[in-house]
Amino acid sequence: MAIKNATDLLVYKKTSPAQPQITRIKIKASTPFKDFTSGENIIINNITDASGDISDGVTDGVTANSGIAVLDSIVAKFNLISAGYSYTAIQNDGVWKYRDFTNGANGPVPTLEVLSGTAEFKAGAVQIDVLQPGQSLVYQPIAYSTSASISMNTDLRDITTKDSEGWQENVAGVRSFEMSTDALWDVNNAVGVESAVNDLVSGDSVDIKFSDRVRNLVATEEVYGPAEWIRTTQIDLTKHLEDPFNQFTAGKYKLSQSFSNARFLYRAPIQFFEGKKLTWTFYIKGSGSNTTFSLSVYKRDGSNTNTSLNPVTNIISGSGTVGTPSGDYTEITGLSTSAWTRVQCTIPQAVSGTDLRTIDFSIYPGNRSSQTTADEVITASWQIETGIDASDYQNPTEVDCYQGKAFVNSVSIDAGTEENATYSASFTGTSELFVNGLGHELIGDNYFDGTVDSTSSYEYINPWWQLSKPTNTTSTFSNGEARLIWTSGATTFLKSYSQDTNAALNIMVVGQKYELTYTLTTASSGSKIIIEEAGPDKNIPCVVGTHTVRFTADSQNFKVKSDSASGDVRFSYISLKQVFS
Questions:
Q1: Fewest CB within 10 A of the end CB: N or C in the chain?
Q2: Domain span at residue 365?
Q3: Residue-wise DSSP of 431-462
Q4: Which of 90-99, 181-190, 298-307 has the lowest mean pLDDT?
C-alpha cells in the first residue's frame, strides 16, 4: 500500500449489512380507544415506500374498538396506497395484539407512528418497537483517523524431538490479527464511536477494512449495471467499450427516440457527502455525429424532491467548451469523437438539508431540451470525491486493503474542545484476513491443461469444474487453452459441476458479490459471452485481453456460455473469487 502518512491509512467499518427496517406495532387488544363510535379514524406518519418516499398524515378508518381492528385497518391502508410493506399475521402478547411490518427497501427510514385521529387512543394503548433498524451497506472511516495499525500473528507449535539435535523446531499454528485506531471524532457523526460502542456492548462481530484512503466513492469502475446506475427508458446502452485506461468499462448512451431531459445518472448515498464539499470528474467523448451533452447535480430528499447543487464546471483535459449554466443544467459542446475529455464538476458549498437521501449525478446526451435519435455519448471512469480538488482517477476495485471480521474489544473516549473528542478503539480478528477483500479461489485450476477427444462431450479440469463440448461446437481444450467454436447461441461451456455426484455444484451465495477474471487470446468479431444467471444474464467483455468483472450472484451455480449466433473464442485463464465488501 502506498502510504505517505498516518492520515492516508484508515480503518473502515461497514455500518451493517444492508437490511430493511422491521417495526412491531402493538395495540391493546381490548378497547384501545376512548368513547369510540363507528366511522372514526387514526393517523399514520412516516410511511416509507420501496422508493424511499415518505408519507405523513395518512388517515385510516377503524371499524371497531379493538386491537385487531386497528391492525387490520393499517394493513388495508398500506395495501391500498402500495406502501411496499410486508407483514406478519396478528400475534398475541398478553394484553396486546401485534403485527411486524418490514419496509419494502433496504436503508435507514423513520419509525412508523400511529396517532389519534378522530378516534382518540387511551394512554399507553399503542406501542411501537423497532426490531431491526434499516441500514445501507456502506463503508465509512471510523471517525477521522490520526493513526491506524494492524498486526498479524502466527502462533508457533513446538515439534522439537530428540532427533532435532538440540535445536527447537516449530510449525505454523493458529493465525490471528488485530487492528487499532486513534481518531478525532465529531460527536455529531453517527458513525464511529457510537457505532463501535454498540458493537462492543452487543458482542457482535463487525466487518472492518484496513485500507489506503478511498478517494473515489463510486462503487464500481463500470458505468452501468449496479442499482446505483439509472437511465431513463428513452436511452439505449452499449456496454464494455474501451475506456481511457485500456480496460472495457465504458458505456455508450444513445437516445432511442426524440425526447427532452432523457438522462443517465449515478445515485450515491447521502452518508458520503452530508456536511462536505465534493468534486465529480468523468471521461466523456462524442459519438456518431453528436459532440454535445448537458449535466446536472441534485440532492434528493425523502419526499423525492430534487434540489440543484449548481456545480462549477470546467474541462481538465481534452476538447470541449463549457457553456453558461442555464437553470439547473450546464451544457458542454465541441467534444471530440475520437479522444477523451475529462470534465470536473465542483460543489463548493457543503451539502446540507433536511431528510436527504441521495446525490444524483446526471448526464443528458445532446441538448437536453431537444434530444434526437442522433444524440449519443461514450463515458467512462467516473470519480466522486470529497473536497474541491480533483485527483487522478482511482479505480474503486483496486484499492489496497486488508479485510476481515473482528470483535470490538476496547473503546475509549477523551473529551475534547467544542464538539470534538479523541477516540481510540481496538479490534481482534475472528476470521481469516483477506487481502484486497478477495476470498479464496473458487475455480481451483485456473488454466486449461486437459484435452478432449473426438468422442467426449465434456471433461473435468478438476473434480468440481466441467468443460462442456456441446454438439453445436467444434471446441478443443488443449495446449493450455479452452477454445470454443459455436454455430448457434446459448452454448454453456464452463460450469461448476461435481464429478462425484454428477450434478451442479453450488459454489456461490445468492446476493453476494464475486470477481471474475479471465484472459481471452482469441475473440472473433461478433462473438458474445455471458455469465448465465437465474435472473437476467450478465454480458461480459469478449475481446482479446485480460478482463475483470464484478457481479452480484442471483444463482448458486456458476456458468459461462455464448450469447451470439456464432463465434470463436479462446480462454487461457479464468479465476472466480468472492468479494468481501
A1: N
A2: 229-386
A3: SPPEETTEEEESSS--SB-----TT-SEEEEE
A4: 181-190
Tell me the sheet residues that pair with 504. 497
Which residues are bridge partners to 208 per DSSP?
Answer: 13, 404
Q: Where are any strands of DSSP class E within 46-84?
A: 47-48, 54-55, 58-62
Same domain, residue pair 62 and 189: no
Instruction: For residue 267, give the C-alpha cell.
Output: 445515485
User: Are residue 99 and residue 233 in the same domain, yes or no?
Assistant: no
202 SS3 class = helix
Residues 121 and 165 both lie in one domain: no
411-452: pLDDT as tens digits: 887 766 555 667 777 888 887 888 887 888 887 778 876 554
Which grid coordinates belong to 32?
384501545
* Residue pointed to by grid coordinates 468472492: 578
- Same domain? 7 vs 107: no
DSSP 272-318: GTBTS-EEEEEEEEEBTTB--EEEEEEEEETT--EEE---EEEEEES
Query: Which band of pLDDT confidence, cut at 50, 70 and 90, is reported for residue 296?
Result: very high
**CATH code, 484:** 2.60.120.260
Q: Are residues 476 and 574 in the same domain?
A: yes
Task: Provide the 8-state DSSP code for 232.
Answer: -
Q: Under 8 Å CB-to-CB from 148, ≥6 apart: which residues?
A: 6, 9, 10, 11, 179, 180, 181, 182, 210
Q: Are residues 321 and 247 in the same domain?
A: yes
68 DSSP 8-state letter? H
Domain count, the chain: 4
The yes-or-no verdict on residue 34 having pLDDT over 90 is yes
Question: In this structure, what C-alpha cell is assigned to residue 254?
Answer: 444513445
Q: CB–CB of 550/514 below 8 Å?
A: yes
Name 54's bridge partners. 48
For 328-380, write each residue's pLDDT tens digit.
999 999 999 999 999 999 999 999 998 888 899 999 999 999 999 999 999 99
Say which residues have a Cβ less than 8 Å from residue 243's Cβ, sequence separation at least 6. 221, 249, 250, 283, 380, 381
The whole-angstrom separation of Cα 171 and Cα 153 is 13
211/448 Cα distance (integer angstroms): 34
| Inter-residue contact 277 to 387 (CB < 8 Å) | yes
- Select the more confidently predicted residue: 302 or 417: 302
Tell me whether residue 67 is in a domain: yes
Residue 559 pLDDT grade (very low, low, confident, very high; cuts 50, 70, 90): confident
- 207 and 283 together in one domain: no
Q: Residue 477: its pLDDT value, please?
A: 63
Residue 425 and residue 477 in one domain: no
The DSSP bridge partners found for residue 259 are 371
pLDDT 10s digits, 257-293? 999 999 999 998 887 788 889 999 999 999 999 999 9
Q: 72: closest CA among 109, 110, 29?
A: 29
Write the burial class of residue 380 (CB in 10 Å: 0-12 exposed, 13-18 middle, 19+ buried).
buried
Report the alpha-carbon distance of residue 299 to residue 305 in Å, rounded. Answer: 8
Choose the final residue of a domain: 96, 116, 132. 132
CATH number at residue 406: 4.10.410.40
